[in-house]
Every structure is written in C-alpha cells, then in structure tokens.
Fold:
Amino acid sequence: MNHRLKKVVLASNNAGKLTEFRALLAPLQIEVIAQQELNIPAAEEPFETFIENALAKARQASLLSGLPSLADDSGICVNALQGRPGIHSARFSGSDATDESNNQYLLDLLKNEPQRGAKYVCALVLIRYPKDPEPIIAQASWMGEVIDTPKGSHGFGYDPYFYLPTYSKTAAELDPSMKNQISHRALAMQELLLKMSHEY
Structure:
C-alpha cells in the first residue's frame, strides 16, 4: 500500500453509509464516491461470511470503476440460532422481507429459548484494485441480547430488539451520535482507519 490514495468507490447504495464514510475519511483527504454515481450495480453476495461478501462487493466496484474501493457487510448473529441470521439478516424472513417481518420471524424462532445472547457484526474491506492481494480488512462485533418487546425509535433493522445491558437500553434507544461511536460499524471503522493510517 502507499500514501497516494485520493479517492475510493463505496460499494453501497446506502446514503447514510456514504455520509458516514465521507466524514471518516475526510481527515485522510480521501474522496468517497458512491457506486451508483458510476452506475455500478449491487454485487452478488454468494458467500457465508461477512468478510467474503464485503470483499466480493469491493472487487466488483473496483473492477467496474477502475478505482480503489471500500465495502462493508453486516448483520446480527444470535448464539441460540448458531449465528443466524448472520449474512442473511436483511432478508431473514424471505425475499420480500421488511424490518417488521424479520424481527417477528426472529422472535418466533426464539419463543422458547431462554438464552438470548446476540451480536451485531460488521466487516469492512478496502482494496486498491480488483485483484489486490493485500486488502485491508477490519471486522468488529457489538454484544447484546434479543428482547421480546421493542423499545426506542432510532436506528433500523433489529435495533429496537437489540438490548445493550451495559447501557440499559436497546440500540434504538441510543442517541444516533452515541450509536455512531459504539456500534459494530463504528468499531470496524476505527480499526480500518487505524490500519489505513499505517498504510497510507
């Protein structure tokens, strides 16, 4: 790696992620371009791990743009369900899944399960070019447990049911600025930035 990285393509169509990544990479004077600005379609995610899927997204974005790329893959892993929904978190209840249907399906599966430990996981991958043999990879977890009654109005996905004993709140009850400091994505970003500071 070298210190000449000036711009990257974000392999995501999520506007919130784009804003977040732009702010985080600004101190390194790295411009972040959304893949949709370059008409790059969403990549297939055929793998069983967050890192492999993030790498697939990053490689496609770099291949189709000719630029370095950054990608993430994330989801919730429930201990009692052997890590499910995991990489399938967004479509856990089916191809037409909504946050509501995903959460209800999760609760149905945990109906008679006393052990509710879970974690959010985020994997980030940065590559210089499509076949980069040295991707910078960061992965982080956010520990919590699944509760039956939703609480809070912030966040999205499983946040209203993801309880954080340390804070006595769900992820959806946290102020967004606080969540952006302690969440799985925030922790993964911190690790990625640290690794990038040594490379770039």
Remarks:
- DSSP finds five helices and seven strands in the chain.
- The two ends are 7 Å apart (CA to CA).
- Residues 7-199 form a domain with the Maf protein fold (CATH 3.90.950.10).
